[in-house]
């Protein structure tokens, strides 16, 4: 082969060795790979999938949807009686299996108020004869509730019936589709504002941690090791304390009659208590505290590795201390600074617990509305779409960072 | 050696079999806190003592998300669940709960048949059996209130007469109803009006008048705290939370019953549980006259008329059941229809 000095046997042997080493390496990595797949790739994949693949309605009323296919959403007539009859039969079947509530919830999403309409009609249909429904279902339906004569209900039914759809993404971007198929702004404008706000808060937090963390990391890196080690414990101690405890401590500090207000008032600096808790300020300050170690640690490890003789050389060559610091020392800390900034920014943009506890309404971030759709409104598809957009946003920011700073420049420790 | 192992295995198998035949085990979940403790004392413990079955009693924070996840994934961990009627309506019609055979419920201790003994709402849904009547109202602190003593819903919105912060739970439920009540809408028209665009706009407009004076919180447990350390002068919460603070910690709180929004909690059975018979048996016991009569300890009213025979006469006026005329029954049907769309609009309004 390529090496003429080796006999074919030796080449084979070498290949075998190489293959064995490769297998060994894979075996070592396998547990981690498996772990990442099970806990990371699979859930995120499911989330992405769920945000556009939504077969629930088409599984519940397949035949009705087949018949509605012929009917134009923009038309001003009701769907043909045949479709209504089919729907009456399917609704009865759902009512008997106790699945009508599921349909009600789905249609209600497109048309608020449809839930009680479907549930109450389903109860009435349950008592009717299936054979009668097959021929006179349409009439029974229209008699059951006047709302069945409205086109909105049938439009909502048809649009909810699509299996693959972008509706959740449209909602997540504050848009909606009219019956004519045009994409327009929704009446309720909320999600874009929240994304923008989350970005802003994450940016404030990153800037603040850098501002506070940089001098501290510099001091730690240059102090005698005994002092540095002691101070390091103060940096790490909060790191080991439960997140909830740290957040609650901020509540005690910031509340109306909390430590800060009562101190300031007893010193006669202020007359009225300041309003600090349940504001954006509270979110920013509590999260800055919580995320500070993520900035200090990479900075510290990078600064620790910087040879002090560069700085001394600059001074001995006649540079003034401040320009020397900015032009010689600072550029060498960029890998640590950017790693810290990236960590803090990405963690804070999706942060949930602290804004929920101290943020009130001003300090809400996109993660809080995702939790609302997971826990209260049960709109997991919209939650998935919102989460996917957040993931996309972070990926774009990461890409921008790579273009501007370069990912190879990153140093975590 | 092998023989030993087999005999050991046989012994273990026998032991297990004997165990399942004698005592069974299931999981019940409820809301914890003082309420959970009262349920433990009056329902769970006496039942375990009486039957020898074991019940694991756990807490959850309400809502149907966890229930939905368990049933949809087929991994059912809970057997019996205590839930708010507002969630029951939805969970039942979505097939997340078993249908409960109401005809197996025993008569009250005084012999009244179950169908007459229970209040009508308690058996209104085919999936659950009413457990308590509870309510959401607001209270003020005698030490911090200025401008007199609030007594109506309009007073909550009157910041000129009663200056100071109001603490409300951050969700549209109850707040939208209160806004309309304070705006002079009669109780029986509140939900019809809220179903219209104008009604919703009117409620938000009323909330706008005190928006800058509202402190929002996320969990009922935060509420007495806020009232106590001056975070707010009027605070919304479940009546049991205030009752506990007044009764046990001697807090100078006063509850205002005008316009309170009451609802029931029910016991229900999770769809797909393999302990269904045991679950039914437990619910039959837990909603008996005597166990229900323990609930007023935390100020929640029993759903059986026959339970009142066991209750201290002094406590009865402090229960929501004594103030039903002043209150409004929360509409689970309305909130199933508009919970999500109003939730979005409410969040949008908060951001404005």
Summarize the structure.
The complex is a heterodimer of chains A (413) and B (352). With 413 residues, chain A is mostly helical.
Outline the structure in words.
The complex is a heterodimer of chains A (413) and B (352). With 413 residues, chain A is mainly alpha-helical. Chain A has helices at residues 8-50, 56-60, 62-68, 81-96, 100-110, 114-127, 130-144, 151-161, 167-172, 191-222, 225-240, 243-254, 259-266, 280-304, 308-316, 321-349, 353-358, 366-375, 380-404, and strands spanning 175-177, 183-185. Chain A folds into three domains: 1-50; 56-161, no CATH class; 191-409, MetI-like (MetI-like fold). Chain A is built from 19 helices and two strands. By secondary structure, chain B is of the alpha/beta class. Chain B folds into two domains: 23-133 and 264-326, Periplasmic binding protein-like II (D-Maltodextrin-Binding Protein, domain 2); 134-263 and 337-351, D-Maltodextrin-Binding Protein, domain 2, CATH 3.40.190.10. In chain B, 41% of the residues lie in helices and 18% in strands. In chain B, strands 1, 2, 3, 4, 5, 6, 7, 8, 9 and 10 form a ten-stranded mixed beta sheet that branches. The model of chain B is unreliable at 11-21 (pLDDT under 50). The chains are: A mainly alpha (413), B alpha/beta (352).
